[in-house]
Design a protein that fits this description.
This protein starts with a helix and ends with a strand. Helices cover 6% and strands 55% of the residues. The protein is mainly beta. The radius of gyration is 26 Å and the shape is globular. A hairpin with a 2-residue loop joins strand 16 (224-238) and strand 17. The chain has one domain: TonB-dependent receptor, beta-barrel domain (Maltoporin, Chain A), CATH 2.40.170.20. The strands form nine sheets. It has a 22-stranded antiparallel β-barrel. Strands 4-9-10-7-8 form a five-stranded mixed sheet. The protein is built from seven helices and 45 strands. Residues 51-156 form the TonB-dependent receptor plug domain. It is a multi-pass membrane protein. It comes from Novosphingobium soli. Pfam families: Plug, TonB_dep_Rec_b-barrel.
Length: 780
């Protein structure tokens, strides 16, 4: 299917998003909106309202929607939430959320352009997120900061876990599919003392899932073995007082699904040096290499003697989801998180709320940096190659404390709704990234600790100018302190310390007008920023890499964004058919956007973070839902993103660097879906069928794809997913399911890593092949 056809089918319809929001969809079996569609509730102004009544930048998936779509990973989430792109980096465990073109490059030292949250607490993404016992997931679009948490330039992804309920109950679920993939999870709700003390226990266990074959040793890679548990305690000692504490601990092992050598730079091109060196034409070196006379015991397991330049073509000739790499791919991660939310009603109209969070994550990964069986550079050197001691694996560890205090209420006879807040976060991240250099059989390491202390005050208020016209104004001011200290194993020298302080405002202004009870229009403008800092993978110097300043150092400037957004929302009927149809258009201007370029410094691969002077991102978002019959719901969504560097020249080591085309985001992405429900006779239960089709246009995984990073354009793809549920079998509370994802077994890629300057190769990460299986769930 052409994306233009899908775009034309849905271009007039979209969900309007403008003000930051927490959203929650109506629970399964909950109330329907007046139009007959399931009502979606949001708390954009810290009170529960219909999404159609508030200008919000959010798409929400309820617990029932997560089940219906079989959402268990970030990749599943991308196909379910319009406008959200989940991009992989060097492997399937290195993830990056992208909204409206805002993202974060790997090995940049930049904070995320899209900030993820769990239960209103920001957390870093250094491994995949456990998807179990969730109340909802939301994607908030556009600049954020005037209502909660950290300021961000692109948006936020919000995960809300299930909280304890008043009645005893729970669920247990198990799913098994091809690639030996097992997913089991469950929850138990325990009311300890009426409504005063409530407890909920939840956990998940997964295993299997390897889908990438390594020609080097015939191993299967990409399995994930996860163990995660969560305890949530809710205390309600008196009317108007509540306290909810959540503790979550997780441990993951398995292997990374590595990137494949997608495109190699030909010998003779400026960056084709490895294609020349590791070539059958380079004799006697190449013959000595194959005979094992250069590296001890090499080529143990070596399978291809055709040369580096022709490696991608050879791999593709061997089948889909195939790599050819001489490295270890173990992946280990563990995480701990505590969230405490306390709420106190001071009066009937004023509430004091505090949100405290602590998180710790540690991630250890192995992968082959050159994505090949040739021994010239990689993260880990096996015994068969390295003559000295083995290198440690690449690790990163983060520890974060945060606290947010809010005072919210209503005054002026309920016409003014307001919120005041203060936010503090202290984050610390440790990096250790070793590299083995095959040409000289030696190791180097990037080793540093970064710190960030951020303090902010913010306020937002909405005033009803008339019964139909509302004005919303919000502001935030943030103070940041950023530090970097080089570690004991740092290639740049241990103990060097850098520090900088930055501050800037964020703001929002919105007018919304209810033309009729069914139609609302709005106009919004926002501004926000992303702090600057230090890249731990570049030599320390205090001056940023910009068009005007080029010392070749590791300091980069803050990024600033402002946008304008307009939209219309409709919920009513088309004839007798319930219809929800919305449209939003936006334009964002960004100064000093933070992007990376991979370079060689003193013979070593490095990642330089550069401020690209000016960028413009514009587009539209559309969404439509209709119910032509009581048993059938149809939906479609489309997003179009036109991103461009309008002043694209920066400098790197005295040379101009021209950025473009804009990377990380396809111009078009869209989904069409259908849900059908068929009650069965007697006590047999109900059949529910879901099908969705997701299409994404081509995109570049490098922002230098038109200049020094050729071969970084990934093709478009279309995925078809289906699920059949037999619910409440014989009134037992048991649901059986059959599912298939990527029905046509489409080969597609989810991202990549640009390595032309360092390794003469561009690599890309595989998306999941066709997966299918059965599931069983019991609710009690």
């Amino acid at each position: 299917m052409s994306y233009r056809n899908l775009l034309s089918a849905t271009a007039a319809l979209a969900t309007v998003f403008s003000t930051p929001a927490w959203a929650q969809a109506a629970p399964e079996g909950g109330e329907q909106a007046s139009g007959g569609l399931e009502e979606i509730l949001v708390t954009a102004r810290r009170r529960t309202e219909s999404v159609q009544d508030v200008p919000v930048a959010v798409s929400a998936l309820s617990a029932s929607a997560l089940q219906a779509r079989g959402v268990h990973t970030e990749a599943d989430l991308q196909t379910a939430i319009p406008g959200l792109i989940v991009r992989s980096g060097n492997n399937n465990n290195q993830l990056n959320y992208v909204i409206r073109g805002e993202s974060v490059d790997a090995y940049s030292g930049s904070p995320p352009g899209v900030q993820p949250y769990i239960n209103e607490v920001p957390f870093p993404v250094i491994a995949s997120t456990p998807f179990y016992d969730l109340q909802n997931v939301q994607a908030v679009k556009g600049p954020q900061g005037t209502l909660f948490g950290r300021n961000s330039t692109g948006g936020a992804v919000l995960f809300q876990t299930q909280e304890p309920e008043r009645d005893f109950g729970g669920y247990a679920s198990i799913q098994y599919g091809n690639f030996d993939r097992l997913i089991a999870d469950g929850a138990l709700n325990l009311p300890i003392s009426d409504d005063k003390v409530l407890l909920r226990l939840a956990g998940t266990l997964t295993s299997g899932g390897a889908f990438v074959r390594n020609l080097y040793d015939d191993a299967m890679l990409g399995d994930k073995n996860e163990r995660s548990g969560r305890i949530t305690l809710a205390l309600n000692p008196a009317d108007g007082i509540s306290n909810v504490t959540m503790l979550q601990i997780g441990n993951t092992t398995g292997t990374n699904a590595p990137n494949t050598a997608f495109y190699t730079i030909p010998c003779g091109d400026p960056s084709g040096f490895n294609s020349c060196t590791y070539s059958p034409n380079n004799q006697p070196f190449f013959s000595d290499l194959l005979a094992g006379r250069i590296f001890r015991n090499y080529p143990n397991g070596f399978v291809y003697a055709g040369g580096f330049q022709s490696l991608p073509e050879f791999q593709r000739s061997q089948g889909d989801h195939v790599v050819n790499q001489n490295a270890d791919f173990d992946h280990r991660a563990r995480s701990e998180m505590v969230v405490n939310k306390t709420s106190l009603d001071l009066t009937d109209d004023i509430t004091l709320k505090n949100v405290f969070g602590f998180s710790f994550s540690k991630n250890a990964i192995n992968y082959d940096t050159d994505y090949s069986p040739y021994p010239f550079i990689q993260q880990y050197a096996p015994d068969a190659v390295l003559t000295g001691a083995d290198l440690p694996v690449e690790t990163s560890a983060t520890k974060t404390y945060s606290n947010e205090l809010q005072l919210q209420g209503k005054t002026a006879d309920g016409r003014l709704t307001w919120l005041l807040g203060a936010f503090y976060i202290h984050a610390k991240e440790e990096y250790l990234s070793p590299l083995w250099l095959g040409a000289i059989n030696a190791s180097v390491a990037y080793n540093a600790t970064t710190g960030n202390k951020s303090t902010a005050v913010f306020a937002q208020a909405t005033y009803k100018l008339t019964d139909a016209l509302n004005l919303t104004l919000g502001g935030r001011y943030t103070w940041e302190k950023i530090t970097l200290v080089q570690g004991a194993q740092s290639i740049f020298g241990a103990g060097q310390r850098q520090s900088v302080e930055q501050s800037d405002p964020s703001w929002t202004a919105t007018l919304d007008y209810h033309v009729t009870p069914d139609v609302m229009v709005y106009l919004s403008s926002r501004g926000s920023w992303r702090r600057g800092g230090f890249n731990p993978f570049n030599p320390p110097t205090p001056t940023p890499l910009t068009a005007a300043n080029d010392p070749g150092g590791n300091f980069f400037l803050p990024e600033r964004v402002r946008d304008v957004e307009a939209g219309v929302k409709f919920e009513g009927h088309a004839g007798d058919m319930p219809l929800r149809a919305n449209l939003a258009v936006y334009n964002a201007w960004i100064k000093d956007i933070q992007k990376t370029a991979y370079v060689v410094i003193a013979g070593t691969a490095s990642s330089a973070t550069i401020n690209v002077p000016k960028t413009r991102i514009r587009g539209f978002e559309a969404d439509v839902s209709l119910r032509p019959a009581d048993w059938l719901t149809l939906a479609g969504s489309a997003t179009y993103t036109d991103a461009k560097f309008t002043r694209n020249e920066s400098r790197l080591f005295g040379n101009p660097v021209f950025y473009g085309p804009f990377g990380d985001v396809p111009k078009f992405a869209g989904t069409i879906s259908a849900d059908a429900a068929l009650p069965l006779a007697g006590d047999l239960g109900e059949l529910n069928y879901h099908v969705d089709l997701y299409h994404q246009s081509p995109f570049y995984f490098s922002n230098l794809g038109g200049t020094i990073q050729p071969g970084t354009k990934l093709p478009d793809y279309t995925l078809v997913n289906m699920r059949l549920d037999w619910s409440n079998m014989f009134e037992s509370g048991v649901k059986g399911s059959l599912f298939v994802k990527n029905l046509t077994d489409k080969l597609y890629y989810t991202g990549g890593s640009a390595g032309a300057q360092n390794f003469s190769v561009e690599s890309a990460g595989f998306g999941q092949p066709r997966t299918y299986g059965v599931a069983l769930r019991v609710d009690f």
